[in-house]
Amino acid sequence: MYKKVTPVGDELNAYRQIEDIAQQLKELYKSFGYRLVHTPIFESYDLFSGLEGTISLDEMIKVIDETGNILVMRPDITTPIARLAATSSISSSSKYYYAANVFQRAGGLTGGRNDLLQAGVENLGSISVDADGEVIHLAIRSLQGCGIADFKIDLGHIGYFKGLLRELSLTPQQKQSIRKVVESKQFSELEPLVRQVKGPAKVKEALVALPGLYGAPSQVLQEAKGHICNEYMAGAVDNILEICSVLDDYGCTGYIALDLGLVNHLDYYTGLVFKGYALHYGQAILSGGRYDNLTKQYGRDIPATGFALDVERLRDAIVKDKENQEWNTDYLILYPPLFRRRGYQLADDLRKQGYIVETAGLTEGISRADAKGRNVGQIIVIEEELDVPTGVKASTEVEQPSWG
Amino acid sequence: MDNLSIALSKGRLANAALAKFAEVGLTFSDYSPESRKLIFTCPQSRVRVVLIKAEDVTTYVEMGAADIGVVGKDSLLEKQADVYEVQDLGFGRCKFAVAALKGNKFEKQSVRVATKYPKVARDYYASRGISAEIICLGGSVELAPLMGLADVIVDLVETGTTLRENDLEIVEDICQISARLIVNKISFKAKSARIRKLMQDLKDCQKGGQACRSLI
Question: How many Å apart are CA B93 and CA A188, to the nearest integer?
Answer without folding.
Answer: 15
